[in-house]
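Pipeline run #58 for the internal structure catalog. This entry was flagged by the ingest filter as a single-chain record with no existing model, so it goes straight to prediction. Upstream metadata was stripped on purpose; only the residue string is passed forward. Reviewer on rotation: M.T. Logging verbosity set to normal.
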Amino acid sequence: MTVFGITTEEQVELDKALYDALTPLASAIRSRLSGLPEDRKWEAEPVEVALSVLAAWKVVDTEVKRLTATAADTAGTYGASYEQLGSVWGITRQGARKKWPDAVSRPVAAGASANRTVELCGGTAELTRESGSGLWRWSGVGADGTRGAAEAAVRYATPEEAAAHAGAFLKGHARVDGAAMRREADDFFGAEDRVGDEDPWGRGGD
């Protein structure tokens, strides 16, 4: 496994940057915990002050973990494997999979098509997974005959996200079923007063 380290100078600069970022956060936490005015918020027993600083580091630690997971997901989206993620983090492939279970998409079985189909409101859309990036696109035809597709520069990280956008397109281009509407109207109003098949509710011509 490859472990990436930093130089002593980089360590010093990193520590300084972290402490500079921590100071206002620790001050805000200390002020809330103590309820003291700004000029007296650090007046307390040393243990209380130290605990306020620790609380601030906890916030930073949680945020770093969130950003780390985002970075792993991004790397996975661009094709990184769990072996590569583990190498960067200094852990095994299995450890990386456990740490970031959703970072890397499962490979498509040999011989199986990666494409998926969405059928909705009388229209059909095809979801296509790009072999290089592993990202998804969609294209389809609505029930009214309108063709549509994801914009040229748009890619989706999951097929579910692509399907949601394809579904919105298909819903927006559903064909009006006149026969079904007529049946519903007849069931509700009765067919006796219907003027004609071309204008079932008598709204044509004066």
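catalog note: Residues 108-112, 199-206 have pLDDT under 50 and may be disordered.
catalog note: The two ends are 84 Å apart (CA to CA).
status: ready for reviewer M.T.
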